[in-house]
Fold this sequence. Notes:
With about 190 residues, the protein is mostly beta strands. It has a single domain, classed as Porin, CATH 2.40.160. It has helices at about 1-25, 30-35, and strands at about 45-50, 60-70, 80-90, 95-110, 115-130, 130-135, 135, 140-155, 160-170, 180-190. Strand 4 and strand 5 (about 115-130) form a beta hairpin. It is elongated, with a radius of gyration of 19 Å. Mean pLDDT is about 85; it is low at about 1-25.
Amino acid sequence: xxxxxxxxxxxxxxxxxxxxxxxxxxxxxxxxxxxxxxxxxxxxxxxxxxxxxxxxxxxxxxxxxxxxxxxxxxxxxxxxxxxxxxxxxxxxxxxxxxxxxxxxxxxxxxxxxxxxxxxxxxxxxxxxxxxxxxxxxxxxxxxxxxxxxxxxxxxxxxxxxxxxxxxxxxxxxxxxxxxxxxxxxxxxxx
Length: 190
């Protein structure tokens, strides 16, 4: 069963690539849904690394793996919406915890970039397995993030992006220290 699915996926990729090359649609995409309907590029996975924008009382970084599902582009717009689930490791000094996230994201092609450069926006709700790291406390397990950035296609199915991310608990808990990070992403569309 699995070899048949792999063969079907490879055949779809090959036929879709031939269709797009013949149509010349990668140089200028008039309709995002039309360009993608022949290719199985509705999903993406990627790795992200983040570091704080300002000096913290303890060294902090994040490492994240995510999975995205591209949604249908609304009629008459260039907005490319997606839903994302993620799991990340939050390292605070020598301690670490895990953060599970879920939320929407949109990509908007930037004019004049031949659809290879996108403005991105994202928001997610997170559950932290650990929120108290001694000198650094995040108040509670539920956190929210919003992010803005730029994404560029490296090839037809690979990309890189930079985002600025703000995380806080929205004053739900007694402590609400915001964490703002610079985040670099490398990913693959499939």
